[in-house]
Amino acid sequence: MSRYLNSRTRNIVQYVPGEQPQIAGLIKLNTNENPYPPSPKAVAAAREAASDRLRLYPPPNADALRDVVAARHGMARENVFCGNGSDEVLAFCFMAFFGDKPLRYPDITYGLYRAYVQVFGVKSDIIELRDDLTLPYQRFFGAEGGVIFPNPNAPTGLAIPLCAVEEIAANCRGCAVVVDEAYVEFGAESADSLIRKYDNIVIARTLSKSHALAGIRVGYALGSPELIAGLFKVKDCFNSYPLDSIAQRTAAAALADEEYYRKQNGKIIAVREKTKKELTSLGFTVPDSKANFLFVIHDKLGAKEAQQKLREAGILVRHFDEPRISDYLRITIGTEEQMEKLISAFRSML
């Protein structure tokens, strides 16, 4: 470790993203990417944007994209902030809203939260999930330093209902409540309707999963004008031009093509439910996921060993060697054909 790093950086436990191997023929079910292509209209917009105008800086606030997002959610431009994927949006939330008092978030959740806590020097008040991996959301009540949680949760895929999100917002009026809705379009309820009622809610979204645009890194936040202004204040001190021109045009076209994505994501949901039944018949315990992945455990099959055997069969899944979840595998929902190959591989093991 370099002696020139400051003490905070030296002590960071680095976040490790899902593997991105460059090996032909692998069935990639480890990073929750959409198995279907993006909207043809989005691809056409990307090609059109790749012009000689790339010599110019992009619109700094992505106002045209903000207008498309606002229209989609029935809001005004002032309720929308755009960034490089929801990861950057979440980083700006940590910088803008958290740090004065302990932040409450689940113990089993998106691993980047733990990294951000370290990077930005935020104190933690960690809420343990129940043994069945459900969220005891009432334990968020009374938080003073902020709340953040995914809905649906990652890596469990479990969601809490809209009424529970509202209870959290109503009982944490002194701090920001960030709801990470990266997977919400696969069957959970969005909290976007609560923004008109609660000025402390921020919703983070990404186009990587539901809109098959992981390669261009676009995310956005919804919230009260006051909170959105806070995100812009941080953004302008960090990067005045965060979203490139191609990304802005591509994302706007994708969000406008709702019918295409409703159909594609509907297929993912159907394949998820079919896969859940087949895994259950093989003896797996499978929580009721509302995301584009399943989180599974088998009492006769070690997760790490199973991951390795699947890899040898040309199938990648995710294993988290962490307390309480080391016996689970997280499996992204692929095409029906890909999931059939997965089920066949598990049958061979069992």
Account of the 3D structure:
This protein is an alpha/beta fold. It has eleven helices and twelve strands. The protein has helices at 7-10, 40-49, 63-73, 85-97, 112-119, 162-170, 225-238, 245-256, 258-281, 303-312, 336-349; strands at 27-28, 80-83, 103-106, 124-127, 147-150, 177-180, 201-206, 219-223, 293-297, 315-316, 318-319, 328-332. It has a five-stranded mixed beta sheet with strand order 2-8-7-6-5. The protein has a three-stranded antiparallel beta sheet with strand order 9-12-11, with helices on one face. Strand 11 and strand 12 form a beta hairpin. Helix 2 (40-49) packs antiparallel against helix 8, helix 3 runs parallel beside helix 8 and helix 4 packs across helix 7 (225-238). The model has no long low-confidence stretch (mean pLDDT 95).
Write the layout of secondary structure elements.
Blueprint: H1 7-10, E1 27-28, H2 40-49, H3 63-73, E2 80-83, H4 85-97, E3 103-106, H5 112-119, E4 124-127, E5 147-150, H6 162-170, E6 177-180, E7 201-206, E8 219-223, H7 225-238, H8 245-256, H9 258-281, E9 293-297, H10 303-312, E10 315-316, E11 318-319, E12 328-332, H11 336-349
Parallel strand pairs: 1-10, 3-4, 5-6, 6-7
Antiparallel strand pairs: 2-8, 7-8, 9-12, 11-12
Helix pairs in contact: 2-8, 3-8, 4-7, 9-11
